[in-house]
Amino acid sequence: MTSSTNELMSLLRDELAADDARELRARIRRDPELAADFHRLERTWNGLEPPPPSPLPTGFTGRVMARVHDEKAARSLSWSAAPNWVRATAAASLVAGALLGIGVGRSWPAADASPAAEGAIAGLKVSSGEELSLAAVYWNLIVDSTTGGEPEARP
Question: Is residue 137 within 8 Å of residue 109, measured between CB atoms?
């Protein structure tokens, strides 16, 4: 196939941009040999028909559905189907999260018996008596964990 044949096929399949298609149609009108090639390809293209559909074999749908069901069951998410390392990792994560929650809960400053009007979170007091916001407590925990307890200048 020559490049002009490729262009003609692209024109027949409506794959060319509008400007390119317009230019190629003008070349076809000017060149009788190109016009003959185009008309030959156009007759062939228009004569193409897909083959008639063949009937499905007996029981085909049932076999396909059974296979889909089997594959779906094989890939289902359940603890019994999970590998041992996945179950062990999940259990360890659960225990670590619970211990972390207990540790943070014990280190959290106790709230004043009569919280401020803003709410219980805004009324947190530290042993020194200064009132902290939840953001300040969180920032202090971050500083303690990253710097080993040495406070740095806050932004």
Answer: yes
Residue 152, domain member (yes or no): no
How far, CA to CA in Å, does 25 sit from each of 29, 33, 78, 116? 6, 13, 63, 83
Structure-token pair, residue 128 = 């020194």
Cα separation, 25 vs 19, in Å, equals: 10
β-strands 131-132, 124-125 pairing? antiparallel
Parent domain of 43: 3-47
Could you read off the pLDDT of 73-112 as tens digits, one per residue? 666 667 777 788 988 999 999 999 888 888 777 776 665 4
What is the pTM (predicted TM-score) of this model? 0.33
Q: What's the total number of domains in the chain? A: 2
Q: Return the residue matching tokens 């014990």.
A: 106
- Which residue type sits at 60? F
Report the alpha-carbon distance of residue 136 to residue 103 in Å, rounded.
18
d(CA 77, CA 58): 33
